[in-house]
Structure formats: structure tokens, C-alpha cells
Amino acid sequence: MKKQTHFIFLFLMFTLFFCNVLQARPAGDQVPKKREIDKRDKLSVTPHSIKIQGALLEYTATTGYMKMKDENGKEKASIFFVAYTKEGEKPGAHRPLTFAFNGGPGSASLWLHLGALGPRKVKMSHEGLSFPPPYAVEDNPYTWLKFTDLVFIDPVNTGYSRPAGGVDKKEFHGVQEDIRWVGDFIQLYVTKNERWLSPKFICGESYGTTRATGLSGYLQERYGMFINGLVLVSAGIHYLNHRFAPGNDMPYVLYLPSYTATAWYHKRLSPKYQENLQATLAEVKEWALTKYLPALAKGSRLSKQEREEIVGKLSSYTGLSRDTIDRNNLRIFIFRFVKDLLASEKSIVGRLDSRIKGVDCDPAAEFFEFDPSMMAIMGPFTSVINHYIRGELGYKNDIPYETISSRVRPWNWGEHRQGYVNMAETLRKSIAANNSLKVLVACGYYDLATPFFAAEHTMSHIGLPGSLLGNISFTYYESGHMMYIHKDSLVKLRDDVEKFFKETKK
Fold this sequence. Notes:
By secondary structure, this protein is an alpha/beta fold. The protein folds into two domains: about 40-240 and about 380-505, Rossmann fold (3-Layer(aba) Sandwich); about 250-370, no CATH class. Helix content is about 40%, strand content about 15%. The protein has 16 helices and 14 strands. It has helices at about 1-25, 30-40, 110-115, 175-190, 205-225, 250-255, 255-265, 270-275, 275-300, 305-320, 320-325, 335-340, 370-390, 425-435, 450-460, 485-505, and strands spanning about 45-50, 55-70, 75-85, 95-100, 120, 135-140, 150-155, 160-165, 200-205, 230-235, 345-350, 355-360, 440-445, 470-475. Strands 1, 2, 3, 4, 7, 8, 9, 10, 13 and 14 form a ten-stranded mixed beta sheet that branches. Strands 5-6 form a two-stranded antiparallel sheet. β13 (about 440-445), α15 and β14 form a beta-alpha-beta unit. α3 crosses α13 (about 370-390) and α5 runs parallel beside α14.
């Protein structure tokens, strides 16, 4: 009996020892995984410097994940970010802090990061065209780091950002879901880095302007965090003005001046309208609201004579044939315009930047095969962001960096199931509650994704009292959606935003 008891004791001790060994040393296929996770989770903090207008600016780059958890401490997501802070600034100092992101939804923040705001940028031609691969990165003497610290955010499933294991991506992919998690990131970053007393700005581009205006309300209401200013680059915050759909005539009216600007750039207008772009655009905007919009509103009640007059004017303002306009029932769909304007030379113009041309392989097709203005930047920016994060910022991550991600589909439009999101109302409420909130809307004349006239129309209908209308201002650039790829526009944007920051902080 004693021998049996001794045997059982030895067996239990051996089993306990063996189990401890297994726990201490995972199976071979698990070890690399654990090490990889540890490596990705560690922030990379690196010192850098840049000369701006002859003065040396030293700064620190912080790159990596912010772990997002719910109030019970359960991990929900890892949000990737790159932050730049001026060296020598103390926590809580009054140096401005700007959070920046792009749109999509589904786009990472590399476009603003490496195109305009950051201290390093993709090397492009003066006009914004790419050089042949391999591509290059260079110092950006027009970086906003001169007057503000910067934090670039990649929303979940863009860039390196991912949901935590077992967490449904639906928790992040929707109008309100996206605003919530990006807003929670901002609150956590501000708290961890002791920046509650810093002037705070948000810069969004495209769908990022939808997010930015939504955040102005969310941060106020959820955290009591009042923002000093919003920079809306290529704004689209009221989708009624952008969605080409049966029964919605507004986009046809509001896109018209951008069609005119594009035709002007490619010299498709009559000599009268080619003389002065600004004078031509002023005439077109006036006609669009006073003649074109009422004509479309009449529908089938429009007389034959009225119809002929509209056809003639549209042809003069767009460079398209009268027959094309007539066959399209006076309504020029964006993708019809980009294909038809230069059809005689079998070329198409870009949607993001209509200055840029491409080859139309199938002139008879309804849609273009690709957007030449998107292709002009996709290769350079993707190559440079992958090199820059790993090589210069010292952050190692082997998962794909998602520049334009399909992972965010489907997107939950919530109450906006027709796609007519309207963040203009959120912006109105934010300014009404925080009279110090200022907004700068940056518009490209050759942007056919979010036309400048649509932004003007949205803001003129926001419903603010006269005393607060001055809180919203506009700047314009002779470029497209990413106006900063054009050298002159990059410089002007930096100067305009620096002036905006100074005036906002007064």
C-alpha cells in the first residue's frame, strides 16, 4: 500500500512538472507568433530633425499601436498611429495638437501624412505626377509640424489597424461606429500624453471630413472635449449633394462648375470662356442655381424652347456636344463626363484630379477602366509608406499595410440608408455649442469627387445665425482632390492653414 501511494505521489509530481514545462515553453509553432505579437505591440520612438526656412526643428516620432479597450478592460482593437512632437515641448504645453486622417471609408492616413502634413513626403513632379519606380521619399519643408504637433490615425482595418481577436469588425465599420472609435482614440491619446490644455485641431480629407465633423460633436458630447478648429480637405459632409441617383438633381447642378473648370484646363471651351477661369466660374455658378436647377425641377413640364436653351448653355460650359447632353436628359453623370470630354483623342480625365489624363481602352464602355489620377499616386505612396514606417521610423510589422481597404465593407450607414449622410447638422450644433470652433474648407478646382461648389452649397445651408457664419472660411487651389500633390498648392495650403491656426487661437 505504501509503495502504491509512493508511486501515485511520484506520478502526480511528474505530471505537474510536465504541465508547468508546457506552459512555460509553448509549442514550436506558437513561439514565433508570440514574439511577433510582442514586436508589433512595442512603440517605436525615434529622434529626427528637419530644416524649415533655414531653422532646424528637432522632433520625436512615435509609431505603433494604441490598444483600445471597453470599460470592462476587454481589448477591442489595435489602432495604428504615427505621432510627431516638437522636441523640448513640455506635457500640457500650449503648442497645438492636430489629429489627421483620410477617408474612403477604407483609406489609411498615408495621403495626408506623406503628401502634405508630415515632415517627410513622397517625391513627385511639380505638377503632381509620379516619377518612374522605384520611388523616393524626401524632406517636406512645408510640413505643418512647423506650427503644430501631428498625430496620424489609421481607422480599424486600414493601415496596420485591426480588431482584437474574436471581435466582430461590424463594431467599427459604420458612420457612428467609426466616429466613436476614432473619438475614443483621440480622448485616450490626449489623456495619456497630457495634452488636455493644448489647442486641438482635426484635419480630415474626403470621407475624413464626414468623420471630422462627426467627431466635433462626439468629442463635445461624450468627453467634454471642445475642438479649436477643423480643417476639411475636399469636403463631403452632406451626401445629398454628391449622390447621383434617380430623383436627386442636386449633384448635376453642383458638379457643373467643376466640369467647366476641367474643360477650361483642357482647353475645350470657346475663346470667350477660356479667357479668365474665375470670371467663367462665377457665371456658371450663377446660371446653375438660377436657370439650371429650376429647369431640372420642371421635369417633363420643361418646354422645348427652354430645353434647347439649357442644352446650348450646358454644351458651352462643359465642352460636351449638344447631342450628348440631350441624350442624357440634361443630366451629366460624373462618369459620363470623364469619358466623353476627351473622347475625340481616346483619353479620359481623372475623377480625383481632372488635370490628369489617361488612356481609354474601351470608349464604348459606360465607366472608365481605372482613374488615372488614382493610379498616379497609388504606386508611389504605397511604396514609400511601407519603406518609411519600417526603415526610418523603426517600426516592424509584417502584416499588409492596407492603403485602400476592402476589409471595411459592408459599411453601416445606419439611419442614412439611402446614403444621404448629413454631418452639416452635427457641425451646426457643434459651432452653436462652441462658438470658438472655426472651420477651414480647402477645395480643389479640379476635384470631381467632392466638387467645391457642393461644399459651398452645403455650408451656405448649414443654418447658422449671421453672427457665426464667419466661423467657416474657404480656400481654393488649382489642383484636385489631393491638391497638395501639386507643388504650388502644397505651399499655399500650408500657408493658409498656418494663418488659420494663428487666427483660431486668438
